[in-house]
Amino acid sequence: TFVECFHACLPEEDREAFLRSVHKVVTEVLPWRYEGRFNRPDGKSIWFSANAVPVQEGEDVIFYGFLTDVTL
Q1: Beta bridge partners of 46
Q2: Cα–Cα distance measured from residue 58 to residue 36, given in angstroms and rounded to the nearest whole number
Q3: Residue 3 has what pLDDT?
Q4: Is the dihedral of CA 49, 8, 12, 60 positive or negative?
């Protein structure tokens, strides 16, 4: 899944906070806002901002949103 692949590219010390944030919005179906670090395939670490609106579709929660590189 996207979350598993994305999670693998986060610094290890940031992974738990990321998963907690995703779990909270999936269980409560609330807008998602998150900022964190991401390790690109070339090894460079960047900062990103995530904004999404979850929509309940049957048993699934679908996120409509975007990730933005906010590295200075």
Answers
A1: 38
A2: 30
A3: 76
A4: positive
pLDDT beneath 50: ranges in the chain: none
DSSP secondary structure string, 13-65? Answer: GGHHHHHHHHHHHHHHT--EEEEEEEE-TTS-EEEEEEEEEEEEETTEEEEEE
- pLDDT for 2: 76
**For residue 67, what is the enclosing H or E element?**
strand 60-69
pLDDT of residue 46: 97
Continuous segment of H or E residues that includes residue 2: helix 2-8
Gap between the Cα atoms of 41 and 32, Å rounded: 25
3-state SS, residue 12? helix
